[in-house]
Amino acid sequence: MRKGRQTVIFENAPSIFETASTVGKKEGEGPLSAKFDTVLDDDYYGEDSWEKAESKLQKKTAEKLMEKAKITEQAVDLILAGDLLNQCVGTHYAVRDFDIPFLGLYGACSTMAESMMIASMLISGGMANNAICVTSSHFCSAEKQYRFPLEYGGQRTPTAQWTVTGSGAAFIKNEGNGPYVLGATVGKVIDMGINDVSNMGAAMAPAAHDTLSALFSETGTKPEDYDLILTGDLGHVGSDILCHMLDKDGYNIYPKHNDCGKMIFDAKKQDVHAGGSGCGCCGSVFCGHIFKELKNGNIKRMIVAATGALMNPTSLLQGESIPAIAHALIISTDIENFLR
Amino acid sequence: MRKGRQTVIFENAPSIFETASTVGKKEGEGPLSAKFDTVLDDDYYGEDSWEKAESKLQKKTAEKLMEKAKITEQAVDLILAGDLLNQCVGTHYAVRDFDIPFLGLYGACSTMAESMMIASMLISGGMANNAICVTSSHFCSAEKQYRFPLEYGGQRTPTAQWTVTGSGAAFIKNEGNGPYVLGATVGKVIDMGINDVSNMGAAMAPAAHDTLSALFSETGTKPEDYDLILTGDLGHVGSDILCHMLDKDGYNIYPKHNDCGKMIFDAKKQDVHAGGSGCGCCGSVFCGHIFKELKNGNIKRMIVAATGALMNPTSLLQGESIPAIAHALIISTDIENFLR
Lengths: 340, 340
Prior knowledge:
The structure is a homodimer.
Chain A: E1 2-3, E2 7-9, E3 15-23, H1 25-28, E4 38-39, H2 50-68, E5 78-83, H3 89-95, E6 102-104, H4 111-124, E7 130-137, H5 139-146, E8 162-163, E9 166-173, E10 180-185, H6 200-219, E11 228-231, H7 235-248, E12 257-259, H8 260-263, H9 267-270, E13 276-277, H10 279-295, E14 301-309, H11 313-317, E15 324-332
Parallel strand pairs in A: 3-4, 5-6, 5-7, 8-13, 11-12, 11-14
Antiparallel strand pairs in A: 1-2, 2-10, 3-9, 7-9, 10-15, 14-15
Helix pairs in contact in A: 2-3, 6-7
């Protein structure tokens, strides 16, 4: 059922059946260390390039998910995936060995939310019984592609974020015991003119603001209705901007907000400046940590809004700014009517 | 209703309400010249880079679509789009000024079919009332990104294809007078080990074979049931391979098959070797030419299967082969039960 311009409330709320996560060495030394299924001790993952390592990260995480969910490829109706590498090759080399119908997405760091949102829509609409959603990012492949070669040893500015080496995968079904995806708010592309690739939090915060404002107003809910309002990878700078922007609109999310990019690293001890970023940031934190919190009842009702910065290095060199997007899901441990 | 592993048949078949198309100068000199809404006389489109020109191509085509369909942005529920540029920036800079919820896709040259397929699924499932699907490609931005700078003047091999400068856009609705999207077959990523970026037809043909085989067997239909079996951009080499592969399986598509990459250029006169390619190839040919043929009754029932090659230049330099995908739609001027 559509509710307003951007939000869909599901008549048959799909259930997140199982998740899996893999992270790199540095992420494994952070505060959420114990939450991930696999922590790599070698960020090359036994491969001879960062790109191949990222692809393996995504493939192994999807395989881990199928193992944990006790399902075969043949039992999976769809796989929805994407990543940050040019032409999403992390994903394509990961899924080519899977005998599963595939839908390729590009939402930059919003991909975990975009894939779970589209999967929920397709499942709720009867187009599939279930789907795997998976995404990844890799610090080394991202630095190489977007900024400087690692060997250059470039100095990072205080607003810069650290791309998470990690992958998250979720298996969503048309039946199950929850947590349930009750609804979703589709984002619009928002560009406020930020052009500093070392301050993507600032570029993405207005997109998160736009989507969360739409979610609150279209569903008639308030920040107090949720145990957690989680953003994907705004980091410390972008999170402050988002909370401030929403506060000016009368939505005080300060007590309920957290951000995967703030949670995955200890910013002071781990020298990551403004926090984590990348498709794998929301992917691994949601699939590694948050899913467990939902399962054990510590979180009952939440929003996850993953944000993506939609530029490339060439477009910035040509004087363009950074467009961004945020997609949001409303997740609850109970099938509830509070959104109707 | 799911039918087999990859195919969905729509209970409420969405209607393709209107289309729009734009092409470059060379495409405007080809056999389909009169079919397109706009033919550019300057492939820079008044911009100062090929990438900005491509973005404008997509934006102007979507605007033309809204003008032809007599709708405002506010009346559009979703826009689904993607392109070949790194991080799909052609799309993002095109849609950032639209006040329309956005879903970003990456399917390489299969994007026109992928976007129309997902839009049809979301509309048929009640998640949206309508959607715009749009994609683009640009010869100059693609050559620069995937192969050689134009200034280098590299010699092209006989199997090489010519990326179409063009854009296609379609407006799909939950009601209308057709043509209707009766069903769709979701592709799998297929990699047969081809690693020659100048022979993408050969890399993509096995993906088209896989999807069309699934479509025929899961729907119980035969090539004879269709007036046209259209592929996206296999070109002359890939088309021959596809027809041969299907023939060996007992599906003789020779009399019914055509390919947008063969149709858009006069291969002999226009020096395009194996034919056209790119997201804009299927986009502009379907939205410019084929939609008119459906509307005037020259085609009553058809398949469109757009193919995409899912590599990037870095992955090929690292010794990888070219994975590919094809997504197929079954389109008819009547709501029919022949698929039930």
